[in-house]
Design brief:
Blueprint: H1 5-23, H2 34-43, H3 49-58, H4 74-80, H5 88-125
Helix pairs in contact: 1-2, 1-3, 2-3
Length: 132
Amino acid sequence: MLRYLPFLLVLALWIYAFIDCLNTPEEEVRGLPKVVWVIIILLFGEVLVGPVAWLVAGKARRTPAGGATAARSPRARRAEWVAPDDNPEFLKSLKDETAKNDEKLLKDWEADLRRREDELKRRESGEDPKEG
C-alpha cells in the first residue's frame, strides 16, 4: 500500500492545482493567461512541475490588509464582523418594522371586533345581520 502513496500524493496535488486554477478569477492569475496555466498544469502535472509552478508563481495570494501580522489573524478579523443580533442598527430596523406590523394587525383586529360586536347587537335586537 505504501508504494502507491507517492503516486496518490502527486495525483492529489495535480487535481488540487487544476481545480484551484479553474476556480481562480482571471484578475488574480499572475504571469500567464489562465488558459496557459491550465495547459501547463495538465501537461506537466505528472512530474509536479505544472502544479508547483501554479502554486508558487501563478496565483496572486491574498494577504490581509496591512500585511500578515499576528494581530490580523482570522480570529482577529472575525471580531470585526458583528452578528445580526448584536448589531444595533439591525435590531432598530426590526423594532421599527415589527412596530408597524403590530399596529396594523391591532387595527385590523379592532375593526373585526367592532364588526362582530355590531353583528351580535343586531342579532340580539332581532334585525337581520346581513342588512346594513
